[in-house]
Amino acid sequence: MLTVLFKLSRSLHKYSGLIFFVYFLLMAISGVLLNHPKLIRKVSVPLQITPASHTLSNGNRMAIRESIVDGDSIYLAGRGGVWQSNDNGLNFVKIDTGFPSASYVQDTFCLSLDKKYNRLFAGTRNGLYVYNFTTEKWVNIPFGATDNEPIMDLLQINNRLLLFTQQHCYSAALETQDPRFSIEPLRFDAQSRPQSARITHFFLKVHDGSILGIAGRLFVDTTGLVLAFLCVTGLTVWWLPRYAKNSIRHGNRRFNLKWCYRNHLHVGAYAFAFISIIALSGVLIRPPFVKPLAIFQVPLWTLPLESRGAWQPRIDKALFEPESETLWVATRHGFFSGQADFSQPLQKQIINVPHSGMGTNVFEALPKQQLLIGSFSGLYIWDLPDHQILPLPQHKKDAQLAKNNYRATGIIIKDDSPQYVADYRRGVVPLTATHPLQLPPQMAMTSMSLWHFLFELHNGRIFRQWLGPATWLLIPLGGFLMLSNLITGFYDWLWRSRK
């Protein structure tokens, strides 16, 4: 009986590994590269090999994250860099002289227009840039110890420019041509610190290794390389001729198949538990498991790097509410407000709007102390005095959008009224505007960064064009196939060790 079980396990391990060899190898390599975006940030994927489902069209897929309307001038920013229109949106041109050319680093999150010195600030994934309308050229501006970290938002308050990264805030006076930034004492109320975290957040930290910081990431990288080694050695042992079971000669070179086979067994057995944990955690943070598991919590001490030191939630967006002169910050742990001079810690405020776990993409101040808040869970207006949600203008042409079925990535505001919303799937959609916005066809020619391509590959969405609605099945099926391959391989090693 045990012999039959061993033969069945060996066959399952062999043929599942051969059939899904490419998938397992791609998961290993893409996982390692995704952990180190700086290594590949300057590499872009040609449009010819980018799936049609992932090309930009009408401002979709984060092509528009930020906008500024100044009279007849409109500035748009997003994955394709910064675009300018001087005729109220009829024609756009890309302003890119001196701007990063690689798709990953030119991704722009925020803009700020300084009319006094006739310049435009742009916060990108790779740092801060300023565009001088006289010289018509972008220049990179240093602002901190790590000037190439993503800039989430820019605010102008009382002749000061505030710059928000995911963890810090910097400020500089706007009264000079050469702004000098200094870090601000940004603090959050310690009593608002959560005592637990979603279990899906825990699994994500385990999957990429960040639960243990850089050491954990390097360990996961090593595990990914081991998985790639197992894929290559397994294919090598099967592919090379059987008559050369122990070795094969090629000219003066001698390749030892026995060494390859032996190390495939032993390395796979020793790495079995680690690869299995990473594979299982990757499955659990994707549909259909992510939503049911999101209701469960784990103690904060299970995330050692987040349970020590001063509490610092990840920042998504910020705004200044002029009537109350209050600074607001949207984070992954909710909304905080306080004085703009940072003299006191920011206090957490209860805003009962549906909020996506992927963060806040739209956060703007409207008249009468109203806040416009948008994420992948919809677009909402929150009235501060009455603490209630106000209705958005109804969209008459699209029944789904009329139900606030937005995945909001950006907003275009003119005359203190939201005119258009940028939806992740549909692109730019009119709210109160009477005509569609004429986006330039060149915006759709923006290439995809290698990091984003690998990210979409790693989570399976890159295959949506071919798999359609069944795309969500790819990761759980692939993950369980990898687990079964690991388990059968480990069983085979135990059998051979006993024999």
Automatic annotation (TrEMBL):
InterPro entries: PepSY-ass_TM, WD40/YVTN_repeat-like_dom_sf
Hydrolase recorded as keyword: no
Domain of life of the organism encoding this protein: Bacteria
Regions that span the bilayer: 15-34, 226-244, 265-285, 472-494
Pfam families reported for this sequence: PepSY_TM
Record key words, sorted: Membrane, Transmembrane, Transmembrane helix
SUPFAM superfamilies per the UniProt record, alphabetical: Oligoxyloglucan reducing end-specific cellobiohydrolase
Keyword Cell membrane: no
Stated name of the protein: PepSY-associated TM region
